[in-house]
């Protein structure tokens, strides 16, 4: 079993780190943001629904964490300029960015390939791929100024092995892994590292939509899979680059 599955982050392992989390209002993103804050990080919460981000914010404050920052953004409609403006704002406020967790994704519809509509394909790719592409471009100058920077993408088992009826989502995750590998290769021997996490079957709303008949209690919770998220955010993973780490024991 891989060591990252049992990783126990030292107390305050993320102190003085600034961490941006997309999709921070729900599921894995919410759990990651809260747990990063518990380890001392200052967290920037990105997501579409302000009320959900506020709930994450309130939990972080209740846990005694550093006051987080809420940045409402709709990845389906955001433009490259929105991301460059956001990057400038982050640099102005924090002067650095240590970790980015790209967690926000949409599932789309599970359907035969021939029935995927242009609208659905465009929407899924916009959120799952394009938004991350333009956000990384905008954030790279700031990440390169940081002493130890870690960029974490979220993939899926269908991002390395295609599966019938998972068309658009699967394609978007293959592209995500490809983007990570390109960035990782361009930045090898630098202080910026790029990796993917495959959470596997986890008790989230997206999983319930994809597998409506599945017994939720048989799945790991977002809290169960946090060791891998802590590992890639912490300096203990400084030598890890161009890897896809699975949160589920084989």
From TrEMBL:
A Pfam family assignment: adh_short
Keywords noted in UniProt: Oxidoreductase
PROSITE patterns per the UniProt record, alphabetical: ADH_SHORT
Protein's UniProt keywords contain Lipid metabolism: no
Keyword Oxidoreductase: yes
Gene Ontology MF terms: oxidoreductase activity
Sequence similarity: Belongs to the short-chain dehydrogenases/reductases (SDR) family.
Name of this chain's protein: YciK family oxidoreductase
Species of the source: Brumicola blandensis
């Amino acid at each position: 079993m891989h060591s990252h599955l049992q990783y126990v982050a030292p107390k305050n392992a993320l102190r003085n780190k600034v961490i941006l989390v997309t999709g921070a209002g729900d599921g894995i993103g919410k759990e990651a943001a809260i747990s990063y804050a518990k380890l001392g990080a200052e967290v920037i919460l990105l997501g579409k629904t302000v009320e959900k981000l506020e709930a994450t914010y309130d939990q972080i404050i209740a846990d005694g964490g550093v006051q987080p920052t809420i940045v409402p953004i709709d990845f389906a409609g955001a433009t490259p300029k929105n991301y460059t403006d956001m990057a400038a704002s982050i640099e102005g406020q924090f002067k650095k960015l240590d970790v980015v967790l790209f967690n926000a994704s949409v599932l789309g519809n599970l359907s035969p390939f021939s029935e995927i509509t242009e609208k659905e394909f465009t929407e899924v790719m916009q959120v799952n791929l394009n938004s991350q592409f333009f956000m990384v471009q905008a954030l790279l100058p700031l990440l390169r100024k940081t002493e130890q920077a870690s960029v974490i993408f979220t993939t899926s088992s269908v991002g390395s092995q295609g599966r019938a009826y998972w068309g658009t989502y699967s394609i978007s995750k293959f592209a995500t892994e490809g983007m990570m590998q390109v960035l990782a290769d361009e930045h090898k021997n630098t202080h910026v590292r790029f990796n993917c996490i495959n959470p596997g079957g986890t008790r989230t709303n997206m999983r319930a939509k994809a597998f409506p008949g599945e017994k939720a209690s048989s799945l790991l919770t977002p809290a169960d899979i946090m060791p891998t998220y802590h590992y890639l955010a912490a300096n203990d993973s400084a030598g890890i680059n161009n890897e896809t780490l699975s949160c589920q024991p084989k």
